Amino acid sequence: MAALEFWLTLEVDHFGDLLAELEASHRALVSRHGARFRQLDRRIDAMMEGPTEAMVDVEHLGGGLFVGVAAPAFSALLADLRGALAT
After folding, report:
1. Is 36 inside any structural domain?
2. Residues spanned by the domain of 86
3. What residues have CB less than 8 Å from 43, skipping those under 6 apart?
4. Which of 10, 41, 50, 63 has the fewest CB atoms within 10 Å, measured from its CB?
5. pLDDT higher than threshold 80 for residue 16
6. pLDDT band at 75 (very low <50, low <70, confident <90, very high)
7. pTM above the 0.90 mark?
8. What integer pLDDT is reported at residue 74 of this predicted model?
């Protein structure tokens, strides 16, 4: 009897880096004050408590290789955090 084997690889290093950036940004918000920073803090909490699909998209690169990339809502949150913390 023949056996079939399937191999799938999910690359998440880049997404892991984005999560680390989110965590660092969340810690940096502690020292900031104002409505803008409170709103960003609430968005982070909602993102972390929401469905995984709100944070990561999985793209197929072919040949059983997939990569985890930031979903649009997660990318937008990171962009807003970068802008807010740069001021």
Report:
1. no
2. 1-23+44-87
3. 77, 80
4. 63
5. yes
6. very high
7. no
8. 93
Type of residue at 47: M
The conformational region for residue 58 under phi > 0 = left, psi -120 to 50 = alpha, else beta, is beta
Q: Which helix (H) or strand (E) holds 52?
A: none
Strands (E) across the chain are located at: 9-11, 56-62, 65-70
3-state secondary structure of 7: coil
- How many domains are there within the chain? 1
Positions of E strands within 40-80: 56-62, 65-70
Contact criterion met (CB below 8 Å) for 52 and 46? no
> Which residues are registered as beta bridge partners of 11?
67
